[in-house]
Every structure is written in structure tokens, then in C-alpha cells.
Amino acid sequence: MSSKRFFFFLVLFIPGSLFSQENQPLPTSVTELSAGIYRILYVGRVSMVAFNGDDGLMLVDAGYERSAEEIRNELEKIGAGNLRYMINTHWHSDHTGGNIPFGEGVDIIAHEHVNEMLSHDQVSLGQEKPAFPEYARPNITFSDRMSIRFNSETIQLIHVPGGHTGGDILVWFPLAKVLVMGDLIFADNFPYVDIEHGGSPVQYVENLRWVTENFPDDVTIIPGHGRIYSMEDLRTWQSKLQKTIDIILEASDSGMTPDQMKELKILTEFADYGKWWITEEMWIETVTESL
Ligand SMILES: [Zn+2]
Fold first, then answer.
1. By residue range, what is the domain housing residue 71?
2. Considering its fold, how many domains does the chain have in total?
3. What is the C-alpha separation between 154 and 111, in angstroms, rounded?
4. How many angstroms separate the alpha carbon of residue 92 from the centre of ligand 1?
5. Which of 103, 144, 160, 280 could bridge 267 with an S-S bond, Cβ 3.0-4.6 Å?
6. How far apart are CA 227 and CA 229, in angstroms?
7. What is the pLDDT of residues 90-129, one digit of tens each?
């Protein structure tokens, strides 16, 4: 399948709940993970983290521009203070869109790739994404790591090499042992990898392995999409994804084309991971396209 057709295919299969343009408030919930650290979940799929305390409020990711009303309602429920910092785990609009309604006068922190992406018009999944106004772009950027002392935590921001996009970061709260992984997790599903903007499926899975070796076993892991993970959940998902990549690489080495791989259903053992957005066929396309 050509990459143009692949994009058409992707657009057809984007879940309506994530990308609809409707304006009525949509189901949103909030869960406390640790003292002052909350996960907000929009339409059961898109997640962000609110960290509230004596110094005020920090948001890690901020949903879409259009989910501001729902997020404000949840922030009210937790008695959130003044918004001081926003952190973007990567540039996609379901994570940065909230910079527009929430970002005026707020420090926005991200990897420098995010600023690069949001400073210019982009096309993502066949949709045009206009450049953000200056106030809504990250005003504090970094290339490798940085840390922020806030609400008695020393929060660490850690860039990992191009996996989901070229500007992915992990956000680590060491006292609470909460790790926000953004779209380096699509829990229990094949992940979407933005190859056009610096992502790589092989590196994606390698980054997951790195996390399993560098964070404690009792960590609480917050994905960009899907259920909260334990370290054990992450290990299981990582090793299965690694298996799928090994199977595809082996098939490719033996001269099989992506169409033949799909016809032979070489990933049928992992069919459960293809039920939401990225199907078995799309994952084969993603991995072979990156070879
Ligand atoms: Zn994303």
C-alpha cells in the first residue's frame, strides 16, 4: 500500500469519539493517583494529569482545544489553584490543543521539537494543523532533560529518542512514583507512530524497554490513551509488541511483501491489539514502512 493510501486508510479509521467536531460537553472523569496528582480522562480515551498543591496547578498535557470546558469542570471538582505550568508530552493536538484556551500567561514546557512543530502549519493524518499563536507555544524548551521543583516534588522531564514523534518526553514524579508517558502508551493496543514527524516503531518499542529497566517496579504509569498501567502491564505490552516487530522483520527478511504478510495474517496471535484504531494490517504497514 502506498503511503498516500495508508493515510487515507488511517483517516477512515480514526475513532469518531476522538476526532469529532461536536461542541456539547463530552463524558470526562477525574481520578486521584497520589496526593495532589490527578488523572483527567476525556471521552474515556484522551488523558492528562493535573498536579495541584501549595504552589498552584501544573497540567501535563491539556487535551484538545475543544475539550477546555470539560477539563475546567474537572479542575473545579479538585479545587485546582492557579495554573502555573503546562507541560506537553509531544506536539499532537489531543495533547497540545489545550495550550490555546489555557496557555495565556502560563509557562509552557516541552521538548524543542514541539515548539518547532507548533510554530508552523502541519499536516497530520491528512488534516491541516495551523501554527499555534505565540502565547500557546512552549516558551521553555529543552533537548535532553530538565527538572522543575514544584509542590514539593522535583519533577523530571526526560526526552527519549524518536518513538511516537521526534519530541516525546516522559514526565516523572519521583516522590509519588507516577510516570506520565504520553503517547508512548496506547494501552493494550497497537500504537500509532507518527513516522512523518520523527517517530519510529522500532525505537518506540525500544523506549518502552528502556522504561522497564529504569523505573521502579511499583510505579503508576499514565498512558496518553487507555487504562493506567503497572510496570507488569508495561512489560507484557512491550514484550508482545517486540514480538510483533520480530515477526514482521523476519517475514520481510524472507522476502515477503506487506500485502503477503497481511494476507497470511502473520500477527493473528495479537489480534486483540488491533481492535481500536491501529489494526494488525496498519501495524504491519507502519513497521514495514519504517524499515
Ligand atoms: Zn500523539
1. 3-289
2. 1
3. 18
4. 5
5. 280
6. 6
7. 999 999 999 999 999 999 999 999 999 999 999 999 999 9
Instruction: Using the mean position of ligand 1's atoms as its centre, give its distance from the Cα of residue 183 in Å.
Output: 5
The C-alpha cell that represents 65 in the structure block? 482545544
| Gap from CA of 157 to ligand 1 centroid (Å) | 17
Say which residue the cell 523476519 belongs to.
250
> pTM of the predicted model, to two decimals?
0.91
Residue 134, all three cell numbers: 505565540
Q: How many residues does the chain have?
A: 291
Between the CA of 114 and the centroid of ligand 1 the distance, in Å, is: 11
DSSP letters, 5-23, are HHHHHHHHHS-HHHH----
Task: Please tell me the distance between residue 201's alpha carbon and the centre of ligand 1 in angstroms.
Answer: 13
Contact assessment for residue 288 and residue 252, using Cβ atoms and an 8 Å cutoff: yes
Q: How many CA atoms lie within 13 A of 192 on its CB side?
A: 23
Question: How far does residue 255's CA lie from ligand 1's centre (Å)?
Answer: 32
> Domain containing 66 — which CATH number?
3.60.15.10
CA of 174 to the centre of ligand 1 (A): 24
